[in-house]
Amino acid sequence: LEETLQLAMGFTVQQMIEREMFQRRLKENKPISLHEFLYPVLVTKDALAMDVDIEMGGFDQLFNMSVGRHVIKSVSGKDKLAVTTPILADANGVKIGKTAGNAINIANPPEQLFGQIMSLPDEAIMPCFKLITLVPTSTLTDIEQQIQNNPMETKKELAWEIVKMVQGEEKADFAKDYFEKTVQSRAVPEEIATFEISKLSQTEPDIVTLLVETGLAPSKSHGRRLIEQGAVEIDNQAISDPNKLIVPQPNQIIRAGKRNYRKLI
After folding, report:
1. pTM reported for the whole predicted model
2. Cα dihedral 164, 170, 172, 177 in deg (nearest 10)
3. What integer pLDDT is reported at residue 91 of this predicted model?
4. Buried-most residue among 73, 80, 120, 211 (CB within 10 A)?
5. Taking every annotated instance into account, which residue ranges of this chain make up the domain Tyrosine--tRNA ligase SYY-like C-terminal (predicted)?
6. How many CB atoms lie under 10 A from the CB of residue 107?
7. What pLDDT does 90 receive?
8. Over the stretch 47-97, which tens digit does the pLDDT of each residue have?
């Protein structure tokens, strides 16, 4: 704590409020938390502890990485460099990541990863091609034209490229085929996760309880939302009543959302 406070003496409030984000919030009369001022101090402390010469981060971290350079210079004599990369944002300018709850987990099964990418807004297609994939720069102009003509096919190409890059071409082909069959053609996939009827807590559960217990919904509120959205079916029959009682039968197939299935056994 003493070391952190000592470093904090090298910063001024004036420096902090020069940040564009803080200026905007001051104009909008929105609060700025104290910990937001402390964050760049801790970034500086980390840089000193690791004796870094170059620090890399997203463009949104430029202020945090650069505001303490004069402190590092006075303590270690080094001129630390800050190198930034563009950030990937959605159509509303919100950074895609865990903080916003829209992160894409590349460790997910290929069909889930493919589906997550297909759920991105069309406005994210081009930034994703530029920042994530390994497609040649010379092809980007053609891709931009493809987006105008057929955004769905271009997004599938994007999803395939990303899955191929992190999980291999075979899994990318499988994920694309799975998406086209289950989402676009609404066919039931050949391989479906199963659930044993004997593990249900009730012999005739309501549909919401069934969704939760089979793992198709993380909570009852989420299950109700799926039903309200018309995204729940049993053996291709839509379920619209969240209170509907279900008599589970072997080989029944439950769908929740576009890509989640369970087969009762």
Report:
1. 0.62
2. 160
3. 64
4. 211
5. 199-261
6. 8
7. 67
8. 999 998 999 988 888 888 988 888 898 888 888 899 998 888 766 677 777
Fold classified for 194-264: 3.10.290
Break the chain into its structural domains and give their ranges.
2-85, 110-184, 194-264
Beta partners for 245? 206
Q: How many CB atoms lie within 10 A of CB 137?
A: 8
Query: Alpha helix locations (H) across the chain?
Result: 2-8, 13-17, 20-27, 34-50, 62-66, 69-76, 110-118, 125-131, 140-149, 151-167, 169-179, 207-213, 220-228
Cα gap 201→197, rounded to integer Å: 9
CATH architecture of 110-184: Orthogonal Bundle (1.10)
Q: What are phi and psi of 48, to 5 degrees?
A: -70, -45
- The CATH class of 2-85 is alpha beta
- The Cα 250–Cα 234 span in angstroms is 12
Written as one letter, the residue type at 195 is: F
Confidence at 153, pLDDT banded by 50, 70, 90: very high
